[in-house]
Amino acid sequence: MTLRVPVWSKALVLVTAGALLVLLFSGEIRDNDVFWHLKTGQYILQHHSLPVPDPFSFASNGASYAGEEITRRFNLTHEWLSQVLMYLAYRFLGFPGLVIGRVLLLSIFCGLTGWIVLRRTGQFFVAVAAMLAAAAMAFYFAQSRPFLATFVFLALTMAILETRRWLWVLPPLFLIWANCHSGFVLGWLVCAAYSVELLVQRIHNKLPTEAPRLLLVTALSIALSTLNPNGLRVLQVLQFYRSSGIQTANLEWQRPIFWTPGIYSLLLFGSLLALLIARRKARVVDWLLYLAFAAISLVAVRNTIFIGLVGPVIIASYLPKWRLVGPLAATLAATGLLAFDVAPSLAAQNTLAFRAATWQLPSGAADFIETHRISARMFNNYEAGGYLIWRLWPRQRVFIDARGLSEKAFADYRRILYDESGGKTAMQLLDESGIQMVVTEGFDYLSGQVYPLAVNLAGASAAGWKLVFADEKCVVFLRNPSADIAPLDAAASLSDSLGAQCKEHMQHDPLRPRCAFGLGEWYAFRGDSERARQWLGVYNQHRTGPDHEADEMLQSLNVTNLNRQATDLQSTGKTPQAEALLRQALATAQRTLGPEHPDTAGAMNNLATVLESEGNYPEAESLFRQSLAICRKKFGAADPRTAMALDNLAGVLEGKGDVAGAESLFRQALSTAEQSLGPEDPMTRAIRSDLDSLLQAQHAQPARSGRGGSASRPR
C-alpha cells in the first residue's frame, strides 16, 4: 500500500533535504589540486593550446616505465574543458563560484539518484531516502574538481537509459563528457549494461520497440566520446597506472577498507543482499551495474562514489512495499546524514564556507618569494605544488605537484623530503637538481612525522642553507641568500614554526591531531622531555581512539624524567636519593613498558651504574647482564647499543677483579662498535680506551680491588 502525501508536505520534505545537501556540500575548498586546475584553465584560454609539454614544473620529464610519456600527456590534457570552465567560474565569481558549482553538481547527482528511484518505485519517501544515501557517499567527494563532471554525467546517462527518452541527448553528452574527464568510459559500461538487458529480453521475446534506437545511440555515443585529446588511450593509461609508483602511494588509489562499518560498506553489501533476496525478479541491468561498479569500487577509494549511485537505486528498487517503509527509510537517512556528516561540519564551521582554506596554503611564503623576486630553482612539498603554481608561475616552476607527471621526480622527492636511505642523500639530490630554495611544510599530517628535510636544513649552515622565512604554514630555506634577506635563528624559528603549524592545523582539522604526536616524538628525540610531554598531552586530548605508541612514549618520558632527576641528585653527591629514584624508574619501566622494553634496559643500566659506583658489584652485574640480554634480543648482536651494554658489563667485572672476563667482554664490545660505527667513532674510541686501561693495569699490577672512575664510562 502506498502512503498518500500532500503536495505541500512533499515540498517541505524536498526543501529540507535540499537544505541538508547545501550544508553538506558547501565546505571550504581544502583540496589544493584546485589551484593547478585553475592555472591550467587560465593557460589554455591565454595560449589557445593545451599545456603540452608541461610548462609548470622543471622536473616533469623522463620515463621510468614504458608508457610514462603517454601517461604524462594524458594527465596534462584529459580534463581540459573542465579546467577551462573552472577558471571561468573563478574569474567571474571567485572562490564562491567554485563552491556554488560544487554544491549544484553534487546536488544534481543526488537528485538524479532519487529521481531514478521515484520512477522505478513511485514512492516519494523511498526516493528521498535514496537521494540522502547518495549524499552520504558523495560527502566524501565534496571537492571542486573535474571528477564532478563524471558523477553528474554518469547519473544523467543512467536516468536517460532508465526512461529511454531523450536518447539523442547521449551522443553530445558523451562528446562533452570525454573532454571534461576521463571517467566517460564508465558511461560505456552503463550503456552496455542496458543494451545487454535488451538482448536478454529479446531472447525471451520481450524486445522493446526502441531497442534498435538504443543500440544505435549507444554506438554513436561511444564513437563521439573518442573525439578528445587522447582518443582511446584512456584504456591504455589505466593499465600504465598499475606500473606507477605515484599512483601506488596516492591515498585515492588505495583499496577501500570495505569491512569497516560505514556508508560504503552499507551500500556495497546492502545492494548485494537486496539482489539476492529479490533474485527471481531482479533486473539484469541491476546485476550488471552492481557487479561492474562494485568491482571498480574495490580497486580504489576514489571509485567508491559509484556505489553511491547504483547502491541506493538497487536497494530502494527491491524494498518491501509496506506503508511505512518509505517514511521510515527517509527519516533514518536524514537522521544519519545530520548526525554523522552535517552536524560535525556545522560544529567545525565548515558549511556555507564560500572560500578557499587559506589556513593550509603557503600564502606567506609565496608573498615572501614575490616580494624578494626570488627566481632560484625551488624544491617544494607535494601538497603545496598546486598553490605555488597558481601564485608563482611563470617566475617560478615547481619541483612536484599532485598531477603526478614524473616517477623519477616523485622518487627523488620522497628521498629528499624523508632523507630515505638506499641511494643518493637528500643533499646530493638537491645539488644534482640545482635546487637553491626549499619551500615545505613541517609535517606529514596523516602520520604526524616531522619532515627530516626541514630539520636537516636547519642544521646545514655549513652548506650555505639558511632559514629565511617561517610562519604557521611552512618554512623557506635559501642557499647563500642575498644580502637583503636576513637569515633567521634556524633552531628557534623552526621549533616555533612547527608548533604554530600544528596548532593551526588542529584548530581547523581537529580529527587529525597526529602532528602533536610527531612534535612530541621530535622533542623526545632531541632530549627535550618537557616539551615532548606537553605535545603528547595535547595529542592525547584530541586523539579519537586508543594509541599504544603514544601511551608507550609517554611512559618512556616518565621514566626518562625520573632518570634525569636521579642524575641531578647524583651530581650533587646525593647518591642514596638518586638510587631510590632509579629504582622507582626501573619499577615504572617494568610495569608500564614491560620487562624487555629497551627503556627498561636503559633503566637497568642507569641503576647498575650507580650501584657499581657504590661498590655493590653483585647487584650491578645482575642488572648489566639483564640489560645486555634485552639489547641482544631487541637490537641484535651487531648493534652499537649491544656494544655499550657489553662495555658496561665488562667494567663491573673489572671492578670485581674478574680481569679475564672483563677483557673478553671489552674485546667483544670493541669488535661490535668498530663494525657498526667505525674505528674512529667516539663510542668506539671510548671502548678502546677502557680496554687499553685494563691491559695497562694488568701490566702494572696483577689484580685490583676496584675500578676507579668506572661510573664515568659512557652509558
Strand order of the largest sheet: 1-2-4-3
**Rg from C-alpha positions?**
33 Å
Largest sheet entry: 4 strands, mixed
> What is the structural class?
mainly alpha
Task: Write up what this structure looks like.
The chain is mainly α. Among the domains are: 1-9 and 16-144 and 324-356, no CATH class; 358-502, 3-Layer(aba) Sandwich (Rossmann fold); 629-715, Tetratricopeptide repeat domain (Serine Threonine Protein Phosphatase 5, Tetratricopeptide repeat, Alpha Horseshoe), CATH 1.25.40.10. Helices cover 65% and strands 3% of the residues. The chain contains 30 helices and 4 strands. A 4-stranded mixed beta sheet has the order 1-2-4-3. Helix 5 (124-138) packs antiparallel against helix 14 and helix 26 (598-613) packs antiparallel against helix 27 (617-635). The radius of gyration is 33 Å and the shape is elongated. The N and C termini lie far apart (82 Å).
Task: List the keywords.
715 residues; mainly alpha; Rossmann fold; Serine Threonine Protein Phosphatase 5, Tetratricopeptide repeat; 4-stranded mixed beta sheet; 30 helices; 4 strands; 65% helix; elongated; disordered C terminus
